[in-house]
Amino acid sequence: MAKKKSKREHVWLECSQCSSRNYRTSVSVAEGTPKLELQKYCKKERKRTVHKIRRK
Ligand SMILES: [Zn+2]
After folding, report:
1. How many whole angstroms from 36 Cα to the centroid of ligand 1?
2. CA of 22 to the centre of ligand 1 (A)
3. Would the pTM count as exceeding 0.70?
4. What angle do CA 34, 35, 36 make, to 5 degrees?
5. pLDDT tens-digit map of 9-47
6. N or C, fewer C-beta in 10 Å, the chain?
7. Cα 23 to middle of ligand 1, angstroms
8. What's the longest Cα–Cα distance across the chain?
């Protein structure tokens, strides 16, 4: 049985402009939710906006 040490969790990358969840990714949550801000393409607005991590 393999035991994973690092806690990883699937999160959403949510657009900070229109709150649509455009991307799914997994991050390490061993030290709390990482505060990431990424420039991603928002399909809804058809431009690049800041996306933030949103845990389920
Ligand atoms: Zn958007």
Report:
1. 16
2. 8
3. yes
4. 100
5. 999 999 999 999 999 999 998 888 888 899 999 999 999
6. N
7. 11
8. 46
